Amino acid sequence: MEHIDFSLVDWSRAQFALTAMYHWLFVPLTLGLSFIVAFMETLYVRTGNPEWKRITKFWMTIFGINFAIGVATGIILEFEFGTNWSNYSWFVGDIFGAPLAIEGIMAFFLESTFIAVMFFGWNKVSKKFHLLSTWLVAFGSNLSALWILVANAWMQNPVGMKFNPDTARNEMVNFWEVLFSPVAINKFLHTISSGYVLASVFVIGVSAWYLLKNREHLFAKRSIIVAAVFGLVTSLFVVLTGDGSARNMAQHQPMKFAAMENLYVGQQNAPLVAIGILKENVKEAAHKKQDFRFMIEIPNMLSYMAFLDPNAYVPGIQDLVHGNPEHQILSYKEKSEKGKIAITSLAEYKNAKKTGNDSLANAALVKFEENYKYFGYGYYEGRELHELVPSVPTTFYSFRVMVGLGFHFMLLFFVVLVLTLKDKIAKNKWVLYTALWSIPLAYIASELGWVVAEVGRQPWVIQDILPTIAAVSQLQPTSVQITFWMFFLIFTALLIAEIKIMTKQIKKGPGEDAPSNESASANN
Amino acid sequence: MFEAFSYITLQHYWWIIVSLLGAILVFLMFVQGGQTLIYTIGKTNDERTILINLLGRKWEFTFTTLVTFGGAFFASFPLFYSTSFGGAYWVWIVILFAFIIQAVSYEYRSKAGNFLGKRTYEVFLLLNGILAPVLIGTAVATFFTGSQFSVNFMNITRLTGDKMPVISEWMGPAHGLEAALSLHNLTLGLAVLFLSRVLALLYFMNRIKHAEMMERVKKQLLINAIPFVFFFLTFVIWTLLSSGFAVNPETKEVFVEPYKYLHNLLQMPVVAVMFVLGVALVLIGIIRPLTCFEKCSTKGIWGAGIGTVLTVLALFLLAGFNNTAYYPSTFDLQSSLTIQNSSSSQYTLTAMSYVSLLVPFVIAYIWIAWRAIDNKKIDMEELDNETHVY
């Protein structure tokens, strides 16, 4: 394995993580705020009340500031698959490229066309056309999320494809299987609804700040009502789809599931550790059942969560690494041997084809196909198999903080909604402060969701088929190092600019909707 | 419907779509060209504000077209995506970087608390305006001049030795930047840069109501048209007289053929007509506003715009059709990419072809939305009444 340049692999991973996490700082607000703004404008068009227009325009300005940096950080992600993961791009490009292209054709143009109408059309197009444009922006941005999440879900659960040994790549055989795989549907719904929750927390937090400053009472209360209702409804979706995602994970990515639960020894009637503190520096083999410094558990819950059966067996990290014949689990050693057979048979097949020896080629192909399931493990043959275990503390804690915060937001939505409807919100200072300080928490929860999903699946770029070490582009590690810092610096500078502009804009407030506009539009 | 198409037909169909997107992208780079002219045409703050707002309402189309071009190329010819992006790393990274800094500049430039200052965002727009056309131009020129790389599917089975299991390996010394140092490639890069400036000037004529600025625009048109014509003709003649990369349709063997691109032009009369018509339209689009400014100045962008799309489309077809390797490797000829050996599977191309049927609808709604908000020329009065100003 001396031929693997780990410095290159790690810097490439770091760069992808950096750019993806930066991008994700802006996407959820775009996803959710676009709908919130559309609701507000609908209320304006329905009631004709200019206060709703003022509210709509303020949040639209915030949307614009956030959208620009979302676009800036987004472009690199699409091209990074080519620049830094070139092997991946060929190995699965036949399947993975399609959603990216569809995203561009279907979603990005919709977004960018109607966003221009949304911002510049107030005095130029009819109220209804403007409203339609705002809805199309919301629809477009969420549609783009659909396609990229379908692509991501496919990496975690590759379906609808077949390996073609002649082209040495996977080829799509069923588009609908890729689009409608349960993993894709859950992932899409879970991710967009979490974006709606974040946007709702954001709107409520900013509105709470106005109330704390004793400004803009009507504006703030109306914004809170729209956001709290939206947040409360979508929180339920987050819970439902989160539950579905956990079940998908248990089936398709048992190692990620075990790592997320710090479950080293598999068991039946597995309890769910609701809150726990891990023991540090324990060697994997030395772990025992329920190895925590401190924990609160819910009996049978993990088995139920994973398989809808409180008695079900949930495999642990040790079972997955060392195998468990009783539960028909192959060890990583066996899998890596089979993977190696797959890889070497592919080479044999290719050589036999070249020399025209068809019978040898066919024999190699049979061997290859029998073992293809474990193809990616082959790259680890003879290596420390613990490289195939993701970071347990990272996934364990990320998951719990994310879920805990999710319930906190739900409670927050409920409390602020009730208080606002009773017109008591302005007096409850501590609720307002909680709402304000929940804004950064929403971002933390949202990022941690991706940490669970992406750290948990390491080292797989395509589950079981392609690990990171076989997916990267052949580059000098220093090249990737330089670009890593380039992106770090520019994205950080832009993030600071974004936050400063946004806080300025919020401090300035919704202001008066300049009467000159109204008269100008009347004159037109 | 598309199921009835043969694999090779689908590959040609997708090469046309990718080429069309590339051609539209080059036309839409008038936004980039305009960004390099902000200080030349806009002498006062108000004038610059007009220009930036004018371009600011269009930049996203260029950006989105680039992203869609990339996505479509990935979906239809993934081997190009993996070989070129992963190999010519630096040239693509610099292009991407130029677009990253553009994406925030319009929105943040005039906003309070923008951290980097108004000037920085204007410099970002200038950098994007220069780097994007020049580097995209040089990258496209490598379709004719070749790059140094090798592709070997067997590499993925490397489990030992001293080399990574990577299929595409780049041999170019500067990971792509070497393309920008070749004079032949650079002539196309500079032609695209000056073309984008010419298109921007024609667009300004079409959209701005401002007498003094129009005088400057008129003067600049000739100043930019001359280098454009010079660099463009240099590239075209140089390319038509050079050897090209042909593919034997039977054996799939790639070989160097003298005057290959000239042969392609002569052997594909439709492409030749498209090319000549495109070039003529661009020239007419430039010359008419110069000779009859009063009447013709608003129409130049249409002639030159359509001409640009036709010309670039013809160039892409010259590179990919008629048994030609569109992404040649000068390091190992047989690693060269053709539309056959680098494409997606027939199934994927078929599925994607259905998606391509959406393109006319996309163009239709873009048209409707543009018309709705671009119903009159822009001036300071318009901006004073606007609530969203860059």
Give the H and E element order of chain A: HHHHHHEEHHHHEEEHEHHHHHEEHH
Our estimate of the beta-strand percent of chain B is under 5%
In total, how many beta strands of chain A? 8
Largest interface: A-B, 106 and 85 residues
Order of helices and strands of chain B: HHHHHHHHEEHHHEEHHHHHHH
Derived from helix and strand composition plus strand pairing, the structural class of chain B reads mainly alpha
Helical amount of chain A: 55-70%
Calculate the terminal CA-CA distance of chain A, rounded to whole Å: 72 Å
**CA-CA gap between termini of chain B:** 46 Å
Whole-number radius of gyration of chain B?
Answer: 22 Å
Structure description:
- The complex is a heterodimer of chains A (524) and B (390).
- In chain A, 53% of the residues are buried.
- The N and C termini of chain A lie far apart (72 Å).
- In chain A, β7 (460-462) and β8 (466-467) form a beta hairpin.
- In chain A, strands 1-2 form a two-stranded antiparallel sheet.
- Chain A contains 18 helices and 8 strands.
- Chain A has 524 residues and is mostly helical.
- Chain B has one domain (2-151, 168-349).
- In chain B, 69% of the residues lie in helices and 4% in strands.
- In chain B, the strands form 2 sheets. Chain B has a two-stranded antiparallel sheet. In chain B, strands 3-4 form a two-stranded antiparallel sheet.
- In chain B, β3 and β4 (254-257) form a beta hairpin.
- Chain B has 18 helices and 4 strands.
- With 390 residues, chain B is mainly alpha-helical.
- The termini of chain B are far apart.
- The interface between A and B is large, with 106 and 85 residues.
